[in-house]
Design goal:
Blueprint: H1 2-28, H2 34-38, H3 42-47, H4 49-75, H5 82-98, H6 100-110, H7 119-124, E1 134-137, E2 144-150, H8 168-175, E3 178-180, E4 183-184, H9 192-201, H10 229-235, E5 239-244, H11 253-259, E6 262-266, H12 268-272, H13 288-304, E7 309-314, H14 337-357, E8 365-371, H15 378-384, E9 395-398, E10 405-407, E11 411-412, H16 416-423, E12 426-429, H17 444-449, H18 458-467, E13 480-483, E14 488-491, E15 494-497, E16 499-500, E17 503-507, E18 509-514, E19 521-527, H19 537-544, E20 549-555, E21 572-577, E22 585-588, E23 593-595, H20 597-605, H21 610-621
Parallel strand pairs: 2-7, 2-8, 3-10, 4-11, 5-6, 5-7
Antiparallel strand pairs: 1-12, 3-9, 8-9, 13-14, 13-23, 14-15, 16-17, 18-19, 18-20, 20-21, 21-22
Length: 622
């Protein structure tokens, strides 16, 4: 029986590893990478649950079925024959560690960044010793700018041999524009928010305070140590507006935008109010035809105000092959739903640009289009593979003077903002991350390390990017305060947004760990949609760090041993103290609360209490 249990445990691990690996291929046609683990969160999985529910059910059924058959087979084998048993068990272990998922995971681990930025990085990138970046406009003209992030719309979709007539209007538009044909996807830019950060700031997206899953919407600042495109344009008098069909709170997108110059953000919740048919939405938000209808009206309104603006749009339909109603003709008789969505994007984007170019405001407007990232949906990646074209982003700039041409200088996501600024007539003082204008030569990294060899610097790029979060935060005399109405937690001079992603009125369960002596914030563990927690998850996590100072906010049912057992299980409670000590501050959250600094210091200085540890352990195990 013991061997049967071991077999099932190893087989389950093997199946789960294979399932995750195959699911990653299903989503993005590649194995484990940063984008996969970024979205491997209860809250983010919950967001896509409806979309991928059939696949998840199939995985669960196959796993249970295989375990049943496997167990049935083992019961029929004479396990007393030790050699057979050990051989089969050994082969299963070996298979687990030499399998493609294991190799893929090892490759991912090897590419993780160093734990700290050391002096050698300054020697490799001396340009970044100073993070001061400013810009100077060389002319008097300040054109209006429309920046379109086209979801997954990479260059291989323009391959006429594979996809004849797929993007006829955008092909014409590229020919009328300055077309940058050799821009590669950057590290940490494999998904939308990563692509936006890389293209506007010149750095890869990283996490802060080791937030698991990078629930970056927690923070009141997003990469405060860097200067981005929006910062420079705002300083020169531009009004920055963002329009997108998804929830702007997702993955910290709104925090990023507001931290770097954007003052007006229109997302699904604003756009939903404009819908005549309230049911005309998809699993991720608002269809693109609604977005472009709103955007053109916004463009005209902004243009009439005679003040320069940057209007940034983010399309959504290509995320999963959604098809806007206004696109009546599917591509190739609708054989591939995703390609029909791409074909629809051709009509919507080109139609939007045409309306601008036919307007009286055309002469004052520069339009740039860029892929947020390469295509990642399994629904289309397979059909892209036969293309002989390089995997490159689409990036072109369309100007009112009709300036056109093809620029083949090697670039990366990080070079997009410097290129756009140079095109607009700005001279950048200082080094804008890992970016350089492609209008004058190869990008910053390709020019130093080679068009493809720059990827060997990936760990260093991410390490430097992580340093931009300014993670040295210490508790101050102000102590810790909760604003229960706005769901903000204030500590160390920073505000933390406690709302779970996608549910503005539902807090996330959060665990903050501090050094008990210096009161430095060490890391944060966030669990959006706390229903995904097991009963003892948080309590066990606390006891593993029993000698650290902790602050926890969650429902009472999630904190056995650290909350009043008589409290309503669904009431929100907090605990502040050492998990292994008796003194603590906490209770049911009925409104705002404040923990004084002196109280926090006393809690941090308290001694461990073995009896209290045993008591809490017993309450957890009930």
């Amino acid at each position: 029986m013991t061997r049967l249990v071991v077999y099932n445990i190893v087989a389950t691990a093997f199946f789960l590893a294979e399932s995750c690996f195959l699911f990653s291929y299903y989503l993005q046609n590649t194995g484990f990478n940063e984008a996969f683990f970024y979205h491997l969160r209860p809250d983010l999985v919950y967001a896509g649950l409806k979309e991928y529910l059939p696949v998840l059910i199939l995985v669960i059924v196959c796993m249970l079925g295989s375990l049943f058959l496997f167990s049935s087979l083992l019961t029929r084998i004479d396990l007393s024959k030790g050699k057979i048993s050990l051989l089969s068990l050994g082969l299963l272990f070996v298979g687990l560690f030499i399998s493609p998922p294991a190799r893929s995971f090892v490759a991912y681990i090897e590419n993780l960044p160093p734990t700290a930025v050391d002096s050698s990085l300054s020697e490799i990138f001396p340009d970044l010793d100073s993070r001061d970046v400013t810009s100077r406009r060389t002319g008097s003209n300040r054109p209006n700018i429309v920046l379109i992030y086209a979801e997954s719309l990479e260059q291989r979709f323009f391959d006429e041999k594979l996809f004849p007539g797929l993007l006829p209007e955008l092909k014409k538009l590229r020919e009328q524009s300055l077309d940058f044909t050799n821009v590669a996807q950057g590290v940490g830019a494999e998904w939308t928010i990563g692509g936006m950060v890389a293209s506007q700031c010149g750095y890869p997206l990283t996490s802060s305070f080791d937030v698991k899953g990078n629930d970056l919407s927690l923070f009141d600042e997003f990469l405060p140590g860097t200067t981005c495109l929006g910062d420079l344009l705002k300083k020169d008098g531009y009004h920055l507006v963002f329009i997108g069909g998804s929830d702007s709170h997702f993955a910290g997108k709104e925090v990023f935008l507001r931290s770097h110059g954007y003052s007006e953000i229109i997302d699904r919740y604003v756009l939903e109010k404009t819908l005549a048919d309230k049911n005309y939405v998809n699993g991720w938000g608002i269809f693109d035809d609604t977005v472009f209808d709103y955007a053109i009206r916004k463009f005209f309104k902004l243009s009439k105000e005679n003040s320069p603006f940057l209007l940034t749009l983010l399309t959504l339909d290509n995320h999963n092959g959604f098809l806007s109603k206004s696109c009546e003709e599917p591509y190739a008789s609708g054989k591939n739903k995703y390609l029909s969505s791409v074909h629809c994007s051709d009509q919507l984007i080109a139609g939007f640009v045409e309306q601008i170019r036919r307007s009286p405001y055309s002469d004052k407007t520069v339009i740039a289009l860029v892929s947020d990232h390469l295509a990642i949906s399994k629904k289309v990646k397979d059909v892209l593979e036969p293309s002989q074209m390089k995997k490159r982003l689409t990036f072109f700039i369309n100007s009112p003077d009709g300036k056109s041409g093809v620029i083949e200088n090697a670039g990366i996501h990080y070079d997009i903002a410097p290129t756009l600024l140079d095109f607009l007539g700005y001279e950048v003082q200082g080094q804008m991350g890992f970016g350089a204008p492609l209008t004058t030569g190869d990008g910053f990294l390709p020019s130093r390390f080679g068009e493809d060899k720059w990827r060997s610097q990936a760990p260093n790029l991410v390490a430097i990017g992580k340093d931009l979060w300014k993670n040295d935060l210490f508790l101050t005399r102000a102590g810790i305060s909760l604003d229960s109405q706005n769901l903000f937690l204030s500590l160390g001079g920073r505000n933390f947004d406690l709302r779970s992603w996608g549910a503005s009125d539902v807090p996330a369960s959060l665990v903050y760990f501090f050094d008990p002596t210096s009161l430095k914030l060490l890391n944060i563990n966030a669990y959006a949609f706390d229903e995904g927690l097991q009963k003892s998850t948080l309590s066990k996590e606390l006891l593993k760090e029993k000698d650290k100072l902790a602050l926890v906010i969650s429902r009472a049912k999630n904190l056995p041993g650290f909350s009043d057992p008589t409290a309503n299980p669904n009431q929100w409670v907090y605990f502040c103290g050492k998990p292994g000590s008796a003194p603590f501050s906490g209770g049911v959250i009925t409104g705002d609360f404040h923990i004084p600094f002196d109280t926090i210091k006393e809690l941090g200085a308290s001694d461990l209490d073995n009896e209290m540890i045993r008591l809490r352990q017993n309450l957890i195990n009930r």
